């Protein structure tokens, strides 16, 4: 191998950690500073450099440079400083990274850009990108629904890269086995269409049959080029996200993170909240604010859980109320999505005629659980929180929207307005809140808490399908980590321990796959099999 190849391959490069013997063998003598460092010395030095960067975006750029040069060092640093680095490489900073993509562009970070204008190149592109590696996991986005910030076209490649980083940092998914992909089908973002520096296809989004044909070609090609791949869909627009999942979930091993990952983390958070309050799930009234991809995905997961806990489908359905742009959703509305329809209510259930404003809806419905997936900032007001406190002792309030500027609420407000009674979680990281002498830990209800372990389980089992039961098992596996007797306990386990509970999630998924006959891998010892699939960021 050419010496330059080793130094330029982030999966092989050790930088200053190449020993003098390795330098001799690989022809690197004199191509690096003379001092040989240990990995830990490199980590310490890189961490100190990181501290000199002034803004989250500058820190992100520095960390991307490390990622692009030396992946072992990058992930070792990431894992050692996980709570600090996660928000820099993922939510919320990733939102700014997407918006600034063209302005900041230097290099591609081993991502793949599949253009709807050149469909014939797809198979060769995937082979080129893999360069002989076995690809076990792909994250693909078409960038139409990035977090809550909307359509960012090809810029959304940063989301695929970021999601995969979290897979590796949190669950040890081997970076040699992953591929981040953007499906560039155009953009309807006027700012990008007018921007001379925009790097994507500068035309409007292709829709309809041509779009679905492209998606289908992608699925067929990925499955052919990478047998047994786990295909993770991220941040598609509302219509396409559900349509794609519904079409492929019984055909291939696939997962929509916004629908299913979010369903897992919210259900786990609700189960955590109920174990604090002692209330029963089957007695909760559930209000979804923002009934789009995530909102309906989560509602469906909680709905299924209520049935597992003994309610009939009809009884369970009575506990759900969905609110979208139109207000409370009624079955006579002409523009309901297929995912909203099953939960739409009948007008005659209510004496009120105007149920468009969230505060009025809360007063009428009296929800005990309020989950925001609307991308509408500050919509969970004092009035709403205080209404909920009038009829329920411990209201469950999750403000899921990302990034921070779009969150439905600030945790500190929810705690104060409810006099410490609300059981709170937020999609973005929020600091603990001290109120009247109690410190409330704020669980981060972000799918990042769960999808890495889920993917690790799927890969370990070489699961044929990702079933509903596997998803349900993943949600339940998060119970018992937090000491709920502790005053101010969070409803979800902390991000600081995220690495420690991913194997637990993975094991639950593997066991379920084995039971359901969906595992294509023979496994005797589940914990050992999971551990064997975890890559460690250390030099060979
Ligand atoms: N915390 C997490 O893990 C997580 C996961 C997925 C999505 N999210 C967040 O949820 C938000 C929505 O994401 P999505 O993928 O579901 O997007 P989406 O576009 O599919 O859904 C958003 C929904 O909100 C509705 N909406 C818009 N304005 C509204 C208003 N004023 N009142 C009521 N409803 C309104 C839209 O019509 C749409 O149905 C984003 O901010 C995203 O970051 C968080
Ligand atoms: O990316 C995140 O932080 C969570 C979620 O997938 C989202 O779209 O907001
Ligand atoms: Mn997402």
TrEMBL record:
TM annotation in the entry: none
Binding site for a divalent metal cation: 234-235, 258
Provenance organism: Loigolactobacillus rennini DSM 20253
GO cellular component, one term: cytosol
Protein name per Swiss-Prot or TrEMBL: Malolactic enzyme
SUPFAM superfamilies registered for this protein in UniProt: Aminoacid dehydrogenase-like, N-terminal domain (SSF53223), NAD(P)-binding Rossmann-fold domains (SSF51735)
The protein's assembly and partners: Homodimer.
Domain (Malic enzyme NAD-binding): residue spans on this chain: 259-514
GO molecular function annotation: malic enzyme activity; malolactic enzyme activity; manganese ion binding; NAD binding; oxidoreductase activity, acting on the CH-OH group of donors, NAD or NADP as acceptor
Family to which this protein belongs: Belongs to the malic enzymes family.
Enzyme class: lyase
EC code(s) of this entry: 4.1.1.101
Keywords: Lyase, Manganese, Metal-binding, NAD
Catalysed reactions, semicolon-separated: (S)-malate + H(+) = (S)-lactate + CO2
Listed GO biological process terms: malate metabolic process; malolactic fermentation
Cofactor(s) required for function per UniProt: Mg(2+); Mn(2+); NAD(+)
Cofactor binding remark: Divalent metal cations. Prefers magnesium or manganese.
Pfam families per UniProt: malic, Malic_M
InterPro entries named in the record: Aminoacid_DH-like_N_sf, Malic_enzyme_CS, Malic_N_dom, Malic_N_dom_sf, Malic_NAD-bd, Malic_OxRdtase, Malolactic_enz, NAD(P)-bd_dom_sf
Residues at the active site: 90 (proton donor), 163 (proton acceptor)
Domain of life: Bacteria
Residues given in the record as (S)-malate binding sites: 402, 446
PANTHER family: MALIC ENZYME-RELATED (PTHR23406), NAD-DEPENDENT MALIC ENZYME, MITOCHONDRIAL (PTHR23406:SF34)
Residue span(s) of domain Malic enzyme N-terminal: 67-249
Origin organism lineage: Bacteria, Bacillati, Bacillota, Bacilli, Lactobacillales
